[in-house]
Amino acid sequence: MQAEEHNAGTPPKRPPSLEAEFQRIYNKSKNRVLGYILRSVRDADEALDLLQEVFITFYDKLPELDISTDRIESWLVKTARNIILTYVRDTHRRLTRDMMNTQESEAWKKDEQVGRIYQKELERHIDNFLLSLNDQERNLFILQKIEQVKYSDLEKILGLTQRTMKRMAANLLQRLKERTTFDRDYLES
Hints:
Number of strands: 0
Shape: rod-shaped
Distance between the termini: 81 Å
Structural class: mainly alpha
């Protein structure tokens, strides 16, 4: 029992004949398989990595395979094709994901720039509007719409009734809407 045990992290020892067969088949087939991979991948470094994957798979399956015939080279090419397909699919997914992330990032930047331009233009319109108001109207608009002070507090500050201030604020908003083409929802909030 003790002689059969081995560490889980180390591969089991293979008979020397399997090691020799692996080396023989590797030496005989590697150039053909590499040529097949290079025609599909066209990148020498990637092709060598994929060739390594093919022969690792072959090494792992070696005890199960019939290596007495020349059909083993067909098995290697078929394995290479499957590994290439997986590689191409993964590369395509990665490139698509990277492209989408880049596009989203650029879209966010554009949206941010448009938002800043929109905000500056709106502020310019509001500033011009404020300049056209008398002191009482300007104070009410700034305190109520911009600073968002409550009407109950504005009564004490401006000395006007809530009803009067609400009517004035509605009138001011209507005048501002008539002077600008900006988003009405923004002006009403």
